[in-house]
Amino acid sequence: MITRVKPDKQKSESLKKMAEITLERLDKTDMEKYPSNTLLDYYDVIHKLMEALTIKEGVKIKGEGAHQELIEYVAKQQNISEQTRQFLQQMRDYRNRIYYEGFIVHKNYIILNKGKIQTIIKNLFEELNKHPT
């Protein structure tokens, strides 16, 4: 459910900082040895950055299906390609399956998609930095 809230630049900055810290830790991790954890961390970074974008503009998405709705909202607002939107939804699905079913991500997923994931993260950071707090 999308709700309008007071824009919160401080919370946006805090979410951005947490994303940076997670990326810093991820850089010190053997991503191929721990592919499921790597996917969880990458997804967490992307989620925090998308939430930082929305909260900065006064939009809060919560409730059942909030992650899916957040991806749809940000994809539309930021003119993210359909291919990238679908990829983000796939990441969300894998994240849910890891959490709730013990799904194991094969290291090839990380090897093949690391560049794409890092580009998405870079673009989200750039969007956040366009209008500094």
List the helices and strands and how they pair.
Blueprint: E1 2-4, H1 9-27, H2 35-56, E2 59-61, H3 66-77, H4 82-101, H5 107-130
Antiparallel strand pairs: 1-2
Helix pairs in contact: 1-2, 2-3, 2-4, 2-5, 3-4
Structure at a glance:
The protein is mainly alpha-helical and 133 residues long. It is built from five helices and two strands; from the N terminus they run βααβααα.
Question: Could you please describe the fold and organization of this structure?
Answer:
The chain has 133 residues and is mostly helical. It has one domain (2-130): Four Helix Bundle (Hemerythrin (Met), subunit A) (Up-down Bundle). Helices cover 73% and strands 5% of the residues. The chain has helices spanning 9-27, 35-56, 66-77, 82-101, 107-130, and strands spanning 2-4, 59-61. The protein has a two-stranded antiparallel sheet. The longest helix has 24 residues, at 107-130. The radius of gyration is 15 Å and the shape is globular. It starts with a strand and ends with a helix. The mean pLDDT is 95.
